[in-house]
Specification:
It comes from Novimethylophilus kurashikiensis. One of its GO terms (cellular component) is plasma membrane. It is found in: Cell membrane; Membrane. This is RND transporter. This protein is an alpha+beta fold and 475 residues long. The longest helix is centred in the middle third of the chain and has 67 residues, at 148-214. The protein has ten helices and six strands. Helices cover 60% and strands 12% of the residues. It has a single domain (29-100, 144-316, 351-468), classed as Outer membrane efflux proteins (OEP).
Length: 475
């Protein structure tokens, strides 16, 4: 008996020894730091030791924007698709977990057959008869000795968390796109109105110049140049109108609406928050709250479990099987007590030769695990770069705003002086019109920079993880 056990167990031990070892994984980034001067020496941001960025966009104090964000999160089909992926991943957990449980089935069959006269079926040679089997209870249970099925469950759970992180990332990016498109659309409407004023001023200047030309005070060349200038300003108006329409369609699509949707965006210049609150310490703990970093980390865990599962596929499987039923030749005696049958016992399967399938699967999962670590490291580097770039952009844009505001202040003074000189008869009307035109152009230039400020603020908040930064993950 002892020899039989050794003969039986020896192939199991040998085959288990043939399982490949897990490969040494490349190192994951353990720490990274955005330079502190970008935060502490930056007047565009306000460092906060413990920052909760939930609904960070409330700093814009714009009820219409808040409403549009609610519509987009509710109706955008791309976001709904990402949410459906979570349900798909959760179903994989159920499927993987089901393999750890006993399976109970039923099987019934009835066969009418005729045996040949020259067969080896003894008394049944040359006979025609019916064979019936009723097996109402067939139990099978795989004993997960080496934990492969548990690895599959853990892998499915990691996949679900990765899908949930992808959904959060889709939320984050959609919200940023709606905010930036909304402000760009408001700005485009304001710029259209201002460009109309510039054209009216150019036409008024042209009328003054034509009067001076008829009086012999101006040459025809200046009148022609003024005509060309008006045409150029009208071309700018057409470009602004085209931009406004494109932004309108883009916003409608982000909200999950058709091109005919009217969000009724007013053309009032958007407000300008003075600073953006940011976490005081911008290390890996802060960056890891970004959904893309979270997703990359769950992908690492997913492929680690996949590699371990592929390794354990080299080990033998033991299945316990049992059945209770009825078996009879002929239907007359099928339901009698003598037709009762049962069976119970283990079944051992050993992977001996599969043409390299197991080795190929293991190698593929090992490579995928290694690639996922590199992808995670790259995601961390990208996040740190985006945050650093966002902080620098905020600082530079704030300085640009200050310079543009100073230029506008000087242009306002110039326009006031030109108007006073015209009223005092010290200069003609064309000088006043020219000064007012330059004032409008300075206002438009400042408005473009204000839009850059809003976009830079949105980009920085998004790069920090947006509404998920400093917020507990409550499901």
């Amino acid at each position: 008996m002892r020899i039989i056990r050794i003969v039986f167990l020896w192939p199991v031990v040998m085959l288990a020894a043939c399982a490949p070892a897990l490969k040494e994984a490349p190192p994951q980034i353990g720490e990274i730091q955005v330079p502190s001067p970008l935060v502490r020496g930056n007047p565009a941001v306000t460092p906060v030791s413990k920052l909760d960025m939930h609904e960070w966009w409330s700093i814009f104090d714009d009820p219409q924007l808040n409403k549009l964000l609610e519509i987009g999160i509710r109706d955008n089909p791309g976001l709904a698709e990402a949410k459906a992926r979570i349900g798909e991943a959760q179903a994989q957990i159920v499927m993987a977990g089901a393999k750890q449980l006993p399976h109970l089935d039923t099987a019934d069959d009835m066969t009418r057959m005729h045996r040949s006269d020259n067969g080896d079926h003894a008394i049944y040679n040359g006979k025609t008869y019916t064979v019936a089997n009723i097996n109402p209870l067939m139990l099978s249970y795989r004993i997960d000795l080496f934990g492969q099925e548990q690895e599959n469950v853990d892998m499915a759970q990691a996949g679900t968390e990765a899908a949930r992180a992808s959904y959060k990332e889709s939320q984050l990016l959609l919200r940023a796109a709606i905010i930036k498109t909304y402000f760009a659309l408001k700005t485009a409407g304001w710029m259209l109105n201002k460009q109309d004023e510039v054209i009216h001023l150019a036409e008024a200047g042209h009328a003054v110049m034509r009067a001076a030309y008829r009086a012999g005070l101006e040459s025809s060349s200046r009148a022609i140049a003024q005509n060309a200038s008006i045409a150029g300003e009208k071309a700018k108006l057409s470009a602004l109108r085209q931009r406004q329409q494109a932004l309108h369609f883009a916003l409608a699509a982000l909200l999950g609406k058709g091109p005919d949707y009217d969000a009724e965006i007013n053309a009032i210049a958007p407000g300008l928050p003075p600073t953006l609150p940011v976490p005081e310490n911008l290390g890996l703990d802060t960056l890891s709250q970004r959904p893309d970093i979270e997703r990359a980390l769950w992908q690492v865990k997913y492929f680690l479990h996949a590699e371990i599962s592929a390794q354990k596929a080299f080990y033998p499987n033991i299945n316990l099987r049992a059945l209770i039923g009825l078996n009879s030749i002929g239907l007359n005696s099928l339901l009698s007590t003598g037709s009762a049958t049962y069976a119970i016992g283990p079944a051992v399967s050993l992977p001996i030769f599969d043409g390299g399938t197991l080795k190929g699967r293991f190698a593929a999962n090992a490579a995928a695990y290694e690639a996922s670590i590199y992808a995670y490291n790259q995601a961390v580097f990208t996040a740190a770069r985006q945050v650093a770039t966002g902080l620098a952009d905020m600082d530079n844009t704030r300085q640009m705003l200050a310079d543009k505001e100073e230029a506008l202040s000087q242009m306002q003074a110039y326009a006031r002086v030109a108007a006073a000189e015209y009223r005092a008869g010290l200069n003609d009307q064309s000088a006043e019109i020219g000064a007012t035109t330059k004032l409008n152009q300075a206002e438009m230039s400042l408005m473009e920079t204000r839009l850059q400020w809003l976009a830079a603020m949105t980009d920085l908040a998004t790069s920090l993880g947006g509404e998920f930064q400093g917020v507990a993950d409550v499901r």
